[in-house]
Amino acid sequence: MPFFWVSIHKDILMKKIYYPYDEFRDDLKTLTQKIDVEFDAILAVARGGLSMAQMLGEFYNIREVYAINTIGYEETQKLETLKVFNIPHLATSSNILIVDDIVDSGDTLKAVLSTLKSRYPDKFFYTASLFYKPTAIIKPDWYVKIADDWIEFFWSEDLR
Amino acid sequence: MPFFWVSIHKDILMKKIYYPYDEFRDDLKTLTQKIDVEFDAILAVARGGLSMAQMLGEFYNIREVYAINTIGYEETQKLETLKVFNIPHLATSSNILIVDDIVDSGDTLKAVLSTLKSRYPDKFFYTASLFYKPTAIIKPDWYVKIADDWIEFFWSEDLR
Fold this sequence. Notes:
The structure is a homodimer. Chain A is an alpha/beta fold. Chain A has four helices and nine strands. Chain A has helices at 21-34, 50-60, 107-119, 154-157, and strands spanning 3-9, 12-19, 41-45, 65-74, 80-85, 95-103, 124-132, 142-146, 150-153. In chain A, strand 1 (3-9) and strand 2 form a beta hairpin. Chain A starts with a strand and ends with a helix.
C-alpha cells in the first residue's frame, strides 16, 4: 500500500495511507463475517458510516437504513461537547446496528450510543466499524482493522 | 460494459448492466461539474443516495450531510402511497441538495421534495441523480446519464 508521512502536530509524524474502494469492499465483507447477531435496522454515523450503511443494507436486505448526525462545540480550549441530532424514528426496529468508518477517540460513538440508549431504553444497539484505535474510550462490538496510521478514505480522495 | 438480459415482467426483457465503483466515481465527478449553484447541506434519499452524499460532502467540504427515508404502502393493487419520514432538522441550512442514485418513476423524489417544501417553505431545494428515466414524473435539476437499462449498482452486488 502506498503511503507518505504527514505532520499531525509539529513534533509528530504519522504514516498517511490511502484506503481504496477495493480494500473497503473486502473489509466490509470481513465485517459481515464477524457480525454474529441479528439486527433489523442499520444506523450510519454521518458522514463516515454512510457508504458502509448503504452496502450493508443491500447485503442484509434491510431497508431500514438511517443516519444520525453529530457536531462538536469547542467549549474551552481543551473541552469539546458533542451534540447528537437527527435521531431517527426507530419504532419498527428492535435491534439496531450502528456503523462508522473509524472509532478513533471514540467520543462520537460513545455520544451516539448513550443518546440512543436514553431515547430508546428498550431497544438493543450494536456497534461496528472498519477501523478501531485501541486508545479509544469505547470499543465497537466488531471491527476489522486496528488503525495505526492516518487513513485517507477513498470517499475523501477520489473526486479530487 | 458486461450485461445480460433480465425478465422484468413476463413479456419484457431488459438489459441488466453492472455499474462498478470506478464508473460511479467518474459519473459523480461529472455531476459536480454540472451542478452550478451553491448549497450548504446535502440530503441523501436512503438508501440510494447515501454513498453519493458521503463523497459529495467530502468533495464540497460540507459536514451537513443528512438522510431521509421513504416507505411505500400498497393501498390497492394499483395505487401505492409513499410515506416520507426521518425528515432532518435543517435550521442551519438554506440551500439543500437532494441526491438519489436514480430517478426512475420519480415518485420517491417527488414525494421527498414536496414534503420538504411544505415543512421548510423558506428554503431552497435542488435535486441531483446519477441516472434519470425520461418517463419519470419529475426531472432532477442535474443528472449524468439516461437510464435505459436495469442497473445493478456496485453497492448491491459487491458483497455477494
